[in-house]
C-alpha cells in the first residue's frame, strides 16, 4: 500500500547454510531487497499455519543480492523454538517474511573513518553497512566479539571489507580474550575513527556508547528488544530514549529504532519507566510539550 | 453471488463486520502499509486516556501456547494529541473509527466521551471497562463490578452526542459476564465488545522470574478463543437484540464465522495483526468466501446461527 | 548429581512431584501400558460419585488451539465399584492414589469421604469443587461461592480420617481465586489443587452448531497454562505455606518447573496424557534434568522461586 | 510395560503414496506390526512438537508387512489440519505412533462365508481382515461403496482377495449407483453369507446391521467415533451399547470397541444418554447390577 514501507511476502527459500555456530537463510524477496537500507530487519513467521508459536521472529538483514529479482539473507543461532524450526527449512520451502522494517543506520555525508562494533549475531547488520560506507569512500574498521571462536561472525569477510579487523572472544579461543569494549578505545585511537556503529546486547551497547563518548566520537547503536509485532502497533518493544528536545519518551524500538544515537538511549533505565519520561506516573508536561507532541510524526 | 456484508451496531453502519481490536492496530497508520484501511469495517483505536501515559516497564510481552501475554499499560499520547493527529489521519484515508477510551473514574470517562463526541467523523465510542478502578480498595477493574461498570457506561452515554453509539468492552474473567452485559445495556450501552484479554502469567524457565514485568499480564490470541466464544454465546442467548462485537483469537475467516454463529454482528482482529499485518483483509476475504460457499445472502443471517437448533447437525 | 524430588502435601509424602490430573488418567490402568505407574508421584483418579453416572451425551470433545474442550459429565461406576475394583488394582502395582470425589452436596461429599477413608492405602482425598451445586438457583458450581465451597471442604475434612490429607480442587474462572483458596484453607483443606478446566465453547464452522453437546465445555491444555500459573502465583503469594498442586497445560518438564517456580509443590499432567500416554514419565525425566542442570539439590528449593525477587534477572 | 498391549514409538516413514483420493503412509513399527490383529487402529501425533493441534488422529491399520522388522500402513483422505499435515510427510520423517489400539474383529472358528462391507475410508480395516479370514479357509465377499469412483478403496485388491466384489457409488461413477446397503441383501443371499463385517459411518453401520438382522446373519461393526485419547482414559468416545446382561452402558469405542456386535449398538440412541443406560439420570440399578459391575473387567 506504500512504496517505500515494508511489504509482506511468501518467499521461497533459496538456501540454508551452516556458518560456524550460525545458520544463514537466503530467501527470494525482490520487494524487500529493493527497499532495503542497512540496519533494517525482517520478521519471519515460524512453525507453519497451525503452529502454537504465533509471533514473528525478527532478524537483521545480513545481505541483499540482485539474483532472482532480489534476495535477502539473514543469519541466526538456534535459541528456542522459532530458530530451531527455521534451521530445519530447506530450499523451496516458503517463508512468510515482512520487511524491511525499522529505521536504517544514518550514513555520513563525508568519507569519514567508521568503526563497526558487533557482538555475536549482532554483527549481522554491520556487513551491509560496511559495504554502504565503503561505497561512500569511508574507511571501515571492524571490532567483532563473541563468546567463542565459532560465534565470531564472518571473520574472513570482515577482514576483506575492512581496513582492519579486531576480534575478541570471552574464552580467548580466537583473537583477544575479553570483550569488544576492552579493545574499542585503542581501535578508535589507532584508526582515528570519526564514528562508531554498534549492534549487540544492551549491556554491550551501553559500554560501547560510554567508550565512544569518552573519545568524543558519535555512536549509532542498533538494539535487539523483544518484539511482538515489529510494525509499531503493539507497544511491547519500548525503551526510554531522550529526544532532540530533551524529553524522554518510551519509544518503539521496532519503528523508531532499532537504530538510535547511543547517547539518546537511557541504558541505565531500560526495563523501567523513568520518572521524568513523558506520561510517567506523576508526570506533568507543560502545554508546550503537549503542543509539540501533536506535531510529531507518528510513523 | 456476494453476500451483503453490511453490519449495524446501534446507530452506525459498517460496510462489513471485520474491525480491528483496540490496542492491536494503533490508529490504523502502521497497518495501512499492508492493507487498504478503508476496506475493513472499522479501526478500533488504542484506548486513549485524558493525559499522556508512558505505560508499564519492559519486558512487556511473552509468547505462550497459541497466545501471548502482554502488559502495555495504556501507553499513549493522551486524547488531545489523538484527536489532533491520529484520528484525522485515519479519517483522511477513508477509514472508520471506533474510538476506545480509558479513564480512571466515571468523571474522566465522561470528559473523554465529551471530547471524542466533539470530533467529527467518529463511528462509535468504545468504553474500556478493564481499567483498574482507583477507588476500589482491592484495585479491581470496573468490569469486575457490574454496578461500577454501569456507572461508567451511564456517564459516557450522557456525555456522548446522541446518534453516536456507545459500546461497552467487557472482560471474560468476571464473576458473571451475562450480569455485567445486562448491567451495561441497562445503563444504555448501544452494543458490547467482548472480550478483553484474560489475566494470566508466565514464568521464564531460564531465569525463574515472571516473564513480564509486574508478574500478571493479559492473555490474548487463539488460546482464549473458546472463552471468548463462550461469552458471546451466553450474552447473545440472554440479550439477543444487543449488537455484539466478538473478539479473542480470531485468525481466519472461519474463526470470524464462529463468533458470528455464536451471536456477534461484527468481529475484531487483535493479536493476529501482530503476526500477520494484512490479517484483517485476509479474514474479510475468507469470511466472504465462506458465506458465499454457504449461499448466505446477508452476513446478518448467520448471526446467532448456533442458537437456532440443538447441538450436532 | 540427582535432585531430591520428594514432595510433601500435608501429611503425605510423594517420591516426586509429578502426578496425573483427575479425569485424565482413569485409575492408572490404561497408562500402565506405557509407563511404570509406581514411578510417578501419584495417580489422581477420575472424580468418583456415590452412584454410577452415565455422563453427558456425545459429542463430548472438540479440539481448540493448543487445547481441547470436553464435557464428560463425571461418567463413572460409582464409589463402591471404584473402591472394590479400580483402587486395589492401582495399589497392587505400587501406585499411590489421590482419590478425587464429586458430590451433589455437602452430605454426599461427606459420605464419599467416609467411604474413601475406610479404604486402605489412599494417599490423599481431592475435593472436586467444580461440580454444580443443585441447591444453587443459578446452577453455579461450589467453587463459585467461597462459602459453599468451604462448607463442602469442612464436611469432607470432618469425615476423612485424620492423617489423610484433604486437597481442595479449585476453578480458575471464579470471581477471586485467592478468596476461594483462603476459604478452603480456613475450612481445613491441607492443600489445594489448581486449576480445573475453564468454561468455554466452540462452534463447528461446518455445521454452525456448538461443537460439544450442551454448548459449553471445559477448556484444558497448554492454552490455559498462563491462567493456571497466574492462579498458582497469586495463591502462593497470599498463602505461602499451603501446599499447592499446579496443573493446566503441563506438556514438558519446563512447564512443570514453571508451575513450581510460581509456587506449586507438585504438578499434575492432564490433557497431555491423551496426546502422549507416556507423558508423566517424560515430564518427570525432563524436570529432573532441568533441576540437575541448575544444580538444584532439592526440588522443594525451586518452589516459589519466581516470588523471590522482582521480574527480569 | 505390557507385552500385548499397545506401544508408543517414533516411527520412520517408509513411504507416502497417493491412491486415488487417498494417501497411504507406511511406517516402520515392528512393535505395532507384531501385536496387530485386524480391526485395530493406530493413533498418530500431528503437526510436530510445537503444533497447536494437540490430539492424535486415529486411523485403521490397512496392512502390516514383515519388511524392516515390521511395517504398518494406514490410508486416509485429507479432511482437516491433521490429515493435511500427514499428507505432506516424506520418507524418513518420524511419526509418533501409538498402537495397535482397540479390540480386533473376532474371527470365526469354522471356515464360514463372510461378507465384508466398507464405506469410503472405512474399508481400510477390512483388507487385513479378509486376509485373516482367507487363511482360516473362509469365503470372503466384498461390498465396497463410496461417494465416487476415486473414493472406492482398493477395488483391484478386493477383487483379487475375494470370491466376489460388488461396488457402489453415490454418483454411479463406478459399480452400482446407490449405497452398499442397497445391494447387501442380495449379496448375502447369493453368497450364502454366514457373517457380515462392516466398517464406515454410523448411519451405514446401522442399516447394515438392519439388513444382516433381516437375513438372520450376525454382524460385527467397527465404529469411527471422535476420540481424544484412543487409550481409554478420556471418556469422550462413548456410545450406548447393550451388554450380554441386557444392560445398556456408555462404553468407550476406543478400548471396548471399535468393533462391536452390530445388534449391541443402540444406533438410534448414539449422541444421547438413553434413559435406561447404567447411571443415566434417574437410573436406579438393582444391587445385583451393582455387584456385577465390580466384577467386570475394566480394560
Ligand atoms: C531487531 C532485531 C534483530 C535481530 N537480529 C538477529 C540476527 O540477525 N540474528 C540472530 O540470531 N538473532 C537476531 N535477533 C534475535 C532473534 O530475534 C531471536 O534470537 C529469536 O527471536 C529467538 O527466537 P526463538 O523462537 O528461537 O527463541 P524463543 O526464546 O523460543 O522465543 C520466544 C520469544 O522471545 C523472543 N526472543 C527471544 N530471544 C530474543 C532476542 N534475543 N531478541 C529479541 N527477541 C527475542 C522471540 O522473538 C519470541 O517472541 C534480533 C532481534 C531483534 C529485535
Ligand atoms: C477408529 C478410527 C479409525 C479411523 N480410520 C480411518 C482411516 O483408516 N482412514 C481415514 O481416512 N480416516 C479414518 N478415521 C477418521 C480419521 O481419524 C479422521 O479423518 C481424522 O482424525 C481427521 O483429522 P483432521 O485433523 O484432518 O480433521 P479435523 O476435522 O481438523 O479434526 C479435528 C478433530 O476431530 C477429529 N475427527 C475429525 N474427523 C473425524 C472422524 N471422521 N472420525 C473421528 N474423529 C474425527 C480429529 O481426530 C480431531 O480431533 C478413523 C477414525 C477412527 C475413530
Ligand atoms: C498488546 C495489546 C494491547 C491491547 N490494548 C488494548 C486497549 O488499549 N484497549 C482495549 O480495550 N483492549 C486492548 N487489548 C485487548 C484487545 O483489544 C482484545 O480485546 C484482546 O486482545 C482479545 O483479542 P485477540 O485475541 O484477537 O488479541 C490489547 C491487547 C493486546 C494484545
Ligand atoms: C476429559 C477431562 C476430564 C476431566 N475430569 C475431571 C474430573 O473428573 N475431576 C476433576 O477434578 N478434574 C477433571 N478434569 C480437569 C483436569 O483434572 C485438569 O484440572 C484440567 O484438565 C487442567 O489440566 P490439563 O490442562 O493438564 O488437562 C478433567 C479434564 C479433562 C480434559
Ligand atoms: S514490536 Fe510492536 S510496537 Fe514494536
Ligand atoms: S478416546 Fe479417550 S476414552 Fe476413548
Keywords:
heterotetramer, A: alpha/beta, seven-stranded antiparallel beta sheet, 7 helices, binds flavin-adenine dinucleotide, binds flavin mononucleotide, binds FE2/S2 (inorganic) cluster
Task: Describe, in short, the structure shown.
The complex is a heterotetramer, with two copies of chain A (299 residues) and two copies of chain B (313 residues). With 299 residues, chain A is α/β, with parallel strands linked by helices. Chain A has helices at residues 30-35, 81-87, 126-135, 155-161, 180-190, 202-214, 287-295; strands at 7-19, 22-28, 41-44, 57-60, 63-65, 71-76, 94-101, 113-119, 139-146, 164-169, 176-177, 195-199, 219-222, 238-242, 248-252, 259-261.
Could you explain the architecture of this structure?
The complex is a heterotetramer, with 2 copies of chain A (299 residues) and 2 copies of chain B (313 residues). The mean pLDDT of chain A is 92. Chain A is built from 7 helices and 16 strands. With 299 residues, chain A is an alpha/beta fold. In chain A, the strands form 3 sheets. Chain A has a 7-stranded antiparallel beta sheet with strand order 4-3-7-1-2-6-5. Chain A has helices at 30-35, 81-87, 126-135, 155-161, 180-190, 202-214, 287-295, and strands at residues 7-19, 22-28, 41-44, 57-60, 63-65, 71-76, 94-101, 113-119, 139-146, 164-169, 176-177, 195-199, 219-222, 238-242, 248-252, 259-261. In chain A, α6 links the parallel β12 and β13. Chain B is an alpha/beta fold and 313 residues long. Chain B is built from 8 helices and 16 strands. Chain B has helices spanning 79-92, 106-118, 146-159, 177-186, 225-238, 253-262, 272-275, 279-294, and strands at 7-9, 12-14, 18-20, 43-48, 61-64, 67-70, 97-101, 122-128, 166-170, 191-194, 198-201, 203-204, 209-210, 216-220, 244-247, 266-269. In chain B, the strands form 4 sheets. Chain B has an 8-stranded parallel beta sheet. A 4-stranded antiparallel beta sheet of chain B has the order 5-6-14-11, with no helix packed on it. In chain B, a hairpin with a 4-residue loop joins β12 (203-204) and β13. Chain B is globular. Chains in contact: A-B, A-C, A-D, B-C, B-D, C-D. At the B-C interface, β11, β12, β13, β14 and α5 of B face β11, β12, β13, α5 and α6 of C. The structure holds flavin-adenine dinucleotide (2 copies), flavin mononucleotide (2 copies) and FE2/S2 (inorganic) cluster (2 copies). One flavin-adenine dinucleotide is lined by residues 41, 55, 57-60, 74-77, 79-83, 121, 124, 224-227, 258 of chain A.
